[in-house]
Amino acid sequence: MKRFLCLLLxxxxxxxxLLCIVLWIFYVTVVEGAVPTSxxxxxxxxxxxxxxxxxxxxxxxxxxxxxxAQGKYYVVTAGHVATGPNNQSLAIIQGEDQIPLxxxxxxxxxxVALLSPPSDYRPASVVQFxxxxxxxxxxxxxxxxxxxxPKCPELPEMFVSAGVVARVGHVSCGREHDDVTAISGxxxxxxxxxxxxxxxxxxxxxxxxxxxxxxxxxxxxxxCLEEVKxxxxxxxxxxxxxxxxxxxx
Length: 249
What we know:
Number of strands: 12
Oligomer: single chain
Order of helices and strands: HHEEEEEEEEEEEEH
Radius of gyration: 22 Å
Distance between the termini: 50 Å
Structural class: alpha+beta
Strand content: 35-45%
CATH superfamily of the largest domain: Trypsin-like serine proteases
Low-confidence stretches: 22-35, 148-153, 234-249
Number of helices: 3
């Protein structure tokens, strides 16, 4: 048997075949395996903490995602993140820094808000929304900052939670939502839900109430952005980022 294997391995066609197998295994495990990690890192960089600030004190926060459109940068978040109970101002929270945000428009019936940072602010990355509905069972992951405890003085780091699409187009309280099994919680509202290719399929609106995380579908977000002439729905055409490629591709 050993002699037969030795003779077989001397055959050039067999050697070429084995080389192809080795290269295929390398591609699947190393090359393809690196794509999701890269997409997750860009998604984290494109997600920010949106703080509610009163007299420079952070009284609450949610999350948001950066987009690029018409040569400018914006933050898209859940509407209730931008309409807290206090007479607060909004800011991007980065460590000790507070970058002020201006409310461009809020769509309360869709729970979507569009905010604008200072013109000289440059995010590390931006997201790209998709207009197509996701497929039930499709792999997704949510990115956001969850409150560790109600009175924690420090903000948590961005978390990433994997799951799948559980339900599409569910209507509750007059609003259309998609549900995913990726875990989220208080503080994650407005954070992005991404597919395996790194495209944003929705914004977290609530979690920790059931086993599912409810999200605002990206197709609803795009409808809002179309109303303010930032995108053309259903085909999104964001302006190119300055200083590098930003869409999560």
